[in-house]
Amino acid sequence: MNRAYRLAAAGVLSAALVAGTAAAASAAPAAPAAHAVAAKAPQKATLTAKASTGTVGVWKEFRISGTSTGIKAGTKVTVQQKQGAKWVSLPASVGVNKTGGYSLRVKLGIKGVNQLRVAGGGAVSPVITVTVR
Question: Which is it for strands 128-132 and 55-56: parallel, antiparallel or unpaired?
């Protein structure tokens, strides 16, 4: 009987040990990889744009400058002009610098209010207007 009692006690202790180990494993913190994924989500590409002047003479030079986020340095950005219902790329482009900034020299020949924007790297800036006289 003594032997049967020891076997029963050993079985109960083994079961308790296994249950405790399983409970401890389930209470363990999540793997670091799951935490790292949630910490850094990809940043959406954006562009800002600002003209150095609101009014300019025909074929007189002015600047459009701005900043970008989520766009790799060296990525080309281009000035676009609205002509009718279409956006037309102008021959004015430059690469984004390592801090995300850019600055372009632009000359316009179409008199009146010109709607312009900057596009590149999967982003488009808000529309800016420049009046050509």
Answer: parallel
d(CA 101, CA 64): 11
Q: What tens digit of pLDDT does each residue of 58-74 get?
A: 999 999 999 999 999 99
Residue 114: which residues within 8 A CB-CB, separation 6 or more? 81, 82, 108, 129, 130, 131, 132
- Predicted TM-score (pTM) above 0.85: no
Q: Which two tokens stand for residue 108?
A: 């316009």
CA nearest neighbour of 64 among 105, 113, 124: 105
Q: Distance between CA atoms of 96 and 49, rounded to whole angstroms?
A: 13
Query: Would you say 102 and 119 are in contact if contact means Cβ atoms under 8 Å apart?
Result: no
